[in-house]
Design a protein that fits this description.
- It is a single chain.
- With 199 residues, the chain is an alpha+beta fold.
- 42% of the residues lie in helices and 21% in strands.
- The termini are far apart.
- Strand 5 and strand 6 form a beta hairpin.
- The longest helix is centred in the last third of the chain and has 24 residues.
- It is globular, with a radius of gyration of 16 Å.
Length: 199
């Protein structure tokens, strides 16, 4: 299945160039991560490691991860249909509460609505200690969430200025993936690293 995904997944094919461009604008020790929704889990389909030494991230290619922790997963979770969220809460209420997403379905729904309004999710150390995640959703043509594009950065390097630069850049990368899926490889010229960015 891993080999088939690498060869045929339109989102992965569209994201490869964007991820290579995106990681150039992150600090040393960063990783770009592409994930796809897979039933009630999130599966990493591609990784691009940036410059400098770093420890591997938990989102290994092909590994299924829970929906309730980390920017990569939460940004997908926030865009799932209400009926799906109700089913998830019915089965995983304890896990959702432990993740700080609410002790009732109404609290859960409000927490996810706040993430949707922000357009990007930022978390600190929820999956890997010492890492800050920035996650943006990727949608299909019908507006359904397919997955997410994320950057995992060393938390020690995070400050307000870096957050203000990386958050919109991650979102722009996700939009670039969508354009490439819709318009073909020529749309790769619109990926965020091909636009002049003030560091």
């Amino acid at each position: 299945m891993e080999r088939q995904i690498q060869a045929t997944d339109p989102m992965l094919i569209a994201a490869r160039t964007v991820m290579v461009d995106l990681i150039l604008h992150a600090v040393e020790g960063s990783t770009a991560i592409l994930c796809r929704l897979f039933h009630d889990r999130v599966m990493c389909t591609h990784q691009v490691m940036g410059r400098g030494p770093q420890k591997p991230v938990s989102y290994e290619r092909g590994r299924l991860m829970p929906l309730y922790r980390g920017a990569t997963a939460k940004i997908i979770l926030a865009h799932l249909p209400t009926r799906t969220l109700k089913s998830l809460f019915a089965h995983d209420a304890a896990e959702i509460t432990a993740a700080g997403l609410g002790g009732s379905f109404d609290e859960f729904r409000r927490a996810l609505a706040a993430i949707r309004r922000a357009g990007i999710c930022v978390t600190h150390g929820e999956v890997d200690h010492g890492r800050t995640g920035f996650g943006a959703p990727i949608f299909d043509r019908d507006g359904a969430v397919l997955g997410s594009l994320s950057l995992a950065l060393p938390s020690a390097r995070i400050d307000d200025a870096l957050t203000a630069r990386i958050a919109p850049l991650t979102a722009a990368g996700a939009r670039a993936v969508e354009r490439i899926m819709s318009n073909g490889p020529d749309a790769a010229e619109l990926s965020p690293a091909r636009v002049k960015i003030v560091r």
